[in-house]
Structures are given as C-alpha cells and as structure tokens.
Design brief:
The chain has strands spanning 6-11, 27-28, 30-31, 42-48, 52-59, 80-86, 93-99, 105-112, 118-121, 130-135, 141-148, 161-171, 177-181, 197-201. The protein has 203 residues and is an all-beta fold. The chain has a single domain (6-13, 25-184, 195-201), classed as Immunoglobulin-like (Sandwich), CATH 2.60.40. Strands 1, 2, 3, 4, 5, 6, 7, 8, 9, 10, 11, 12, 13 and 14 form a 14-stranded mixed beta sheet that branches. The radius of gyration is 16 Å and the shape is globular.
Length: 203
C-alpha cells in the first residue's frame, strides 16, 4: 500500500448539501508522471457519513472542453475530474467515477490485472449517485459527488482503509492535454493501481 499518500477522511452528519467544506482538509493534484506542479490548481476534499462518501473538486480553468452529453460517454477524451475507489484494497477491482464540467457522469466497475490492463464494466451504474457542477464567471468550476455506500462490497467503519486516487484531465487553449493526479503513477496511465494512495476513515 502506498505509504506516502494518505488522506484522513472525516465523518460528517447529514447529506452533501449540509457539508461545511471549509472545515475539511484539502489536497492538490499534480503532474501524474512526476508530481511536478500542475498548470492549473485543482483542490479536492473528501468526507463520509453512514450513507455515503462525498467528494468536492475545485478546479481553476481557463479553457473548458466538454461536448459529450450522455451517461457513460467516453468523457475522459475531454476535460474531467475522476475518483477511483477500491474498498478491497487490492487494486484489482474498484469503482471509477468521472464527471465533466457539464455534470455528465461516467461510472464503471473496473477489473484490473494489477499492471494497468483493465476491463471497464460501463454497464454498471452507481445507485443513488448524486453529482453537481457549479461554474464561475472566471471559468473555474466546482464539482461535488455523493456516492452511496450501498455501491461497495464492504461499508467502512472508523479506522477502515481503502485504496483510492484522484485525477483530472484538462485541455489547454493550444489543444495540449494535461494529466494530473493526487498520487502520481509515473506514467500517463491512471489505472496503475499499485500507486493508489490510502483513504483512512476517521470517526
């Protein structure tokens, strides 16, 4: 398990609409290959309740590319944020959630051979998933997800540890693609699960 990247996920009461994100710790995304500073800032916060895991992305942006409109479209070919959640902690079976700046969702059950070769079960849709996107006048945008715990094989308890990672893909004005992560994987490849960090559920 990745010993360098750990996030203490605090427990809250109530639904995502009642979360005071200002009280939660933030992490930043960096270059997925080497961890160098990203071109744009992306801050992420997480928390959990007895019902759900909740995620808050805050994305600086100067050029948004998002044209797809249907659930499970290949959103990752454009601008997105992503979270992978692995309740078993083996890096072999986990859930992937991808959200576009237009609040379009791609969710899949991922089977991974441990080396990044995957089978994405896009026919799987998370029950009760709630997402929202708020766009600001300066081009930045905020994305929130509430992922019900019923979608996982094992519900967490205080002290539980899952594997996970956070990502963002961004196209700049020149058409260059940028790939950012919380826990860098050493390549432009998000499914190198041995590099996932650890999500620690606090009380």
């Amino acid at each position: 398990m990745n010993s360098l990247k750990r996030y203490l996920c605090k427990k809250v009461q109530g639904p995502i609409e009642s979360v005071n994100w200002e009280l939660l710790d933030s992490v930043s995304l960096s270059n997925v290959i080497d961890g160098e500073r990203a071109r744009l800032q992306t801050n992420v916060k997480l928390c959990w309740s007895d019902e759900a895991i909740m995620v808050h992305f805050d994305c600086e942006d100067d050029h948004v590319v998002a044209t797809m409109t249907d659930r499970d479209d290949p959103l990752f070919h454009e601008d997105v944020v992503e979270i992978f959640l692995d309740d078993a902690g083996q890096g072999l079976l986990y859930r992937e959630f991808v959200i576009s700046p237009n609040n379009v969702v791609y969710d899949a059950l991922i089977v991974n051979d441990g080396e990044g070769q995957i089978n994405a079960g896009v026919q799987w849709n998370a029950d009760g998933l709630l997402t929202s996107v708020h766009k600001r006048e300066d081009g930045s945008w905020r994305c929130e997800l509430s992922i019900p715990l019923m979608n996982f094989d094992a519900a967490p308890a205080p002290g539980s540890e899952w594997r996970f990672n956070l990502y963002r893909i961004d196209d700049d004005k020149e058409g260059n693609r940028h790939f950012w992560a919380w826990s860098p994987t050493g390549a432009i490849e998000f499914h190198l699960s041995k590099h996932f960090g650890t999500l620690v559920f606090a009380d």
